[in-house]
Amino acid sequence: MATVVLNSVNVMSQTTARRCFMSHLKGLANAGDSHLSSIPKLSVRRWSSLPGARWFTCGTGARFMSHGAAGRSAPGQTRRGALALTGAAAVAAAVVGFMANAGHFQRAEMATRIPQVAEEEVERDILERCKGFMSAPVTDISALRERKGEMCTRMEMLIMETQAEFCRALEEVDGGTFKVDRWERKEGGGGISCVMQDGKVFEKAGVNVSVVFGNLTEEAARQMRSRGKVLKGKDGKLPFCAMGVSSVIHPKNPHIPTVHFNYRYFEIEEEDGSKQWWFGGGTDLTPIYINDEDAFHFHNTLKEACDKHHSQYYPDFKKWCDRYFYIRHRGETRGIGGIFFDDLDSPSQEEAFSFVKSCARTVVPCYLPIVYKHLNDSFTAEEKDWQQVRRGRYVEFNLVYDRGVKFGLATPGSRIESILMSLPLTARWEYMHEPANGTQEAKMLEVLRNPKEWV
């Protein structure tokens, strides 16, 4: 997408970023927000149900009952201002993340409904919630407060909270600190990349939020139309906004898996002022050595989140994940999967957002217990070499098949550092590498070549 041109990169240390952020918050508070001290902060509690587990996010679940309207807002509900974008390739994935299945198009369908209720993220003050973030949001806080009931604001707050919660959970287990890197886009919007490199536990950990808006290019619009989207612009232009959070974590210990997640929202305004919108995302695990208990915990956590909304979501989105994260030239999946969905635009925006929120709130409880469990596992030089070989496969998928990465690398002016954040610091390629029969490495490869049902 030619409009995704990023510049004016402003790299700050975490200390500097937070100092500026808190100063900004203080100024807003002094301007008339003395009541903020009475508002509750981010809801996070200790999780003690699993050995070594530390964090569990309190979420809400609702059961749905019937169909509603899909993917379109009424005319006149136009939002002006900075919005957010991300995917596996940060900015680039904003558009292409929703095109991930162009070769085998499938639409995520919601089959249920919840009543309109006051959401906790609307009830609580925007400014108070921002105090828990890694940095100030991409959108100006005053603009967010003015439009706190709009979906773009609610989604931006969700992805900022997801970034902060995950980063702080990782900092606690590692003992290191994330570098907070803000960047801007001259056409509008920008992003916040949080990266921790060469820590005690994580060789490279990245958690990105990005927010972009502008006009969709004709090429991007054609690709969407080829996937069933009927888009009618004005004077050849299609105003859009896209937002999301994405993360890839590469641990040092080969017995701690790599994890990836991204959750995103896309909105397009058509000629008559109406909007088309959809959500996408997912979470998947890439272990170096298979552990049935870990696989069950990871998949079951995701299944429980899906089951709050519909019993068919987990099996459908698990299969979709196995199909998407597939390295065709190797004949194997990238990892043991998880869930993946795209084009989620029914039966209503409220219901789709509720589902995405449930999924986003699993990123800490599905992964951190596994990290703590294997934190002190010993490993051999041979096991480290196998980790390097598997990381090579991870790189192959991202550079050859991941549509967000490919799109970003082909987009003039896109922010390469954020796009390639998903790659590990180190990897290895051995000629004609094949593990010996009967080894743990061969067992891992068998699972990748024949995906299993873990729950």
Automatic annotation (TrEMBL):
EC numbers: 1.3.3.3
Molecular function per GO: coproporphyrinogen oxidase activity
UniProt xrefs under InterPro entries: Coprogen_oxidase_aer (IPR001260), Coprogen_oxidase_aer_sf (IPR036406), Coprogen_oxidase_CS (IPR018375)
One cellular component (GO) term of this entry: cytoplasm
UniProt cross-references to Pfam families, sorted A to Z: Coprogen_oxidas
Swiss-Prot/TrEMBL keywords: Heme biosynthesis, Membrane, Oxidoreductase, Porphyrin biosynthesis, Transmembrane, Transmembrane helix
Domain of life: Eukaryota
Pathway the protein contributes to: Porphyrin-containing compound metabolism; protoporphyrin-IX biosynthesis; protoporphyrinogen-IX from coproporphyrinogen-III (O2 route): step 1/1
Top class in the EC scheme: oxidoreductase
Residue intervals passing through the bilayer: 82-100
Catalytic activity: coproporphyrinogen III + O2 + 2 H(+) = protoporphyrinogen IX + 2 CO2 + 2 H2O
GO biological process per UniProt: protoporphyrinogen IX biosynthetic process
Assembly, per entry: Homodimer.
Protein family (similarity comment): Belongs to the aerobic coproporphyrinogen-III oxidase family.
Name under which the protein is recorded: Oxygen-dependent coproporphyrinogen-III oxidase, mitochondrial
Organism from which the protein derives: Myripristis murdjan (pinecone soldierfish)
Lineage: Eukaryota, Metazoa, Chordata, Craniata, Vertebrata
